[in-house]
Design goal:
The protein is of the alpha+beta class and 123 residues long. The chain has one domain. The protein has five helices and four strands, in the order ααββααββα. The radius of gyration is 18 Å and the shape is globular.
């Protein structure tokens, strides 16, 4: 009987974990990827410019494949969204009427804005 109870508890825990809210890191990373796609910026990758939609798609693919390397939003920025994993060249964000900046710097600024907005909202 004790084993049956233990199995029931384990199954309940697994079930509740599967339906839990996404982690803060996953939510923040999703916000960052979406921010790239909704920006008016171009994304320079390996010397070629890509529109915001293509940049969003590329970052989603990298996150999907490398999720295990991105336990936090900072790790996502550092390990997946700042440079090419092939050439190691930094990605750049080129926004209208602004100087080009490394994507890691641009994404860190968006992350800071998101966290400040949450803090102001009391979340």
């Amino acid at each position: 009987m004790a084993i049956r109870n233990l199995i029931t508890i384990v199954l309940l825990l697994l079930s509740s974990a599967a339906t839990a809210e996404p982690s803060t890191a996953a939510t923040e990373i999703e916000h960052l990827i979406t921010a790239v796609g909704e920006s008016d910026c171009t994304f320079e990758r390996n010397g070629k410019s890509h529109d915001a939609e293509a940049a969003e798609s590329h970052l989603r693919m990298k996150y999907r494949r490398g999720r295990r390397h991105a336990a936090t939003a900072e790790k996502f920025i550092e390990r997946l969204a700042s440079k090419s994993s092939m050439s190691r060249k930094p990605y750049l964000m080129k926004c209208p009427n602004e100087a080009a900046v490394p994507s890691g710097e641009w994404l860190q600024a968006r992350l800071t804005e998101l966290r400040e907005a949450h803090a102001e909202a009391g979340q």
